[in-house]
Amino acid sequence: MHPSLLKFTTLALTVVTLATPALAESVLNVYSARHYPTDEALYSDFTRATGIRINRIDSDDAGILTRLRAEGSSSPADVILLVDAARLWRAEVDGLFKPVRSKTLEAAIPAQLRAKPTDQGETAWFGLSTRARVVVYDKVKLAKADIDSYEKLADPKLKGMVCIRSGSHPYNLSLFGAMTEHLGPAATETWLKGMVDNMARSPKGGDTDQIKAVASGECGVAVTNSYYLARLMRSSKPDDRAVTEKIGVAFPNQTSWGTHVNVAGGAVARHAKNTDNAVRFLEYLASASAQNHFANGNNEWPAAVGVKFDNPALKAMTGGSFKSELIPISAVGMNQLKVQQMLDRVGFK
Predict the structure, then answer these.
(1) What is the C-alpha separation between 242 and 261, in angstroms, rounded?
(2) pTM for this structure?
(3) Same topology for domains 3-129+262-307 and 131-259+323-346, yes or no?
(4) Per-residue pLDDT, 38
(5) Beta-bridge mates of residue 100
(6) Which CATH class, in words, describes the domain spanning 131-259+323-346?
(7) Domain extents for the chain?
């Protein structure tokens, strides 16, 4: 996306607590790939609590990174919010983030959900919420045991039954990058070819489309991010609820390395002019109240340690908890080019 097409939003604010004139004039420029209406409350709450006015530019991950590269040292960005682990890693490698020290963030966010510390003990980015890459299936045609690992998606018994969005979508690239780490390149390419052979149709649509295709009988099994399913489960529309009643959900690889988890995260921009405010905002997003908002507002799992939440859909999916993989984000990111070449070779569109 061309930078000029990016949407610029200044959030209206009502300061309900007293603030000094200097604090009231404080600002924070946020480039965000999070396009969730429920996040508006997060920005408003932060402004009310601190007096810091937020200016926000919205785009997707790729658009934000393109803009940052084009702007260089003249960029006004203070905080970057991205929704894919591989893109966070890419931005870190490209030097688009400013590594920072924060005892609050280091205590809250587990090591596998943040960047590896620099030699100076600083961290380039922090995961703020997670979403699992789960499998949904037709409960009439299949049992959970038929699809309880990602590897089984390539089993010939699922011939003509698998649906999935484009292989080159970041959500799938991250999953496939993790599988490369688990299985090795050769076995992963064989697995990808097996999935292509099992497809009910060419990859198309988003994750919600895959779920609905299983419910309609077009597919027997599909891959989706967990929050898309949770949205349907919590929907007030009868048609959405009917979809969820026709399918089952499995969190793959619970008896081996765990289910693949992608992360949405935040970082201080390389050329941030308001670094202190930026760190303060990231610390706020790691707080219990903000983490609960990610869970209840957008059906994501909190990234911070020990945060309790009350989202009936997430709890219904897992029974309360599940085992997630612990692959370092850097490893997943470094496998992206290798994965894309595999997809081309096996004809995974």
Answers:
(1) 27
(2) 0.87
(3) yes
(4) 81
(5) 123
(6) alpha beta
(7) 3-129+262-307, 131-259+323-346
Q: Which of 101, 70, 96 is closest to 81 using CA atoms? A: 96
Largest CA distance in the chain: 68
**288: closest CA among 122, 45, 32, 28?**
45
Q: Which fold has domain 3-129+262-307?
A: D-Maltodextrin-Binding Protein; domain 2 (3.40.190)
136 and 214 in contact (C-beta within 8 Å)? yes
The continuous run of DSSP H or E covering 301 comes out as: strand 301-302
CB atoms within 10 A of CB 69: 14
Amino acid 85: pLDDT: 87
Torsion, Cα 81 83 88 90, to 10 degrees, reads -120
What single-letter amino acid sits at 62? A
* Token output for 329: 């984000």
Place of tokens 């919420």: 129
Structure tokens, 3 = 């930078």
Question: To the nearest 10°, the Cα dihedral for 223, 229, 231, 232?
Answer: 120
Across the 349 residues of the chain, what is the mean pLDDT of every consecutive 10-residue run? 40 32 69 89 94 95 96 98 92 97 97 93 96 97 97 98 96 96 98 98 97 98 97 96 96 98 96 97 97 92 91 88 88 91 98
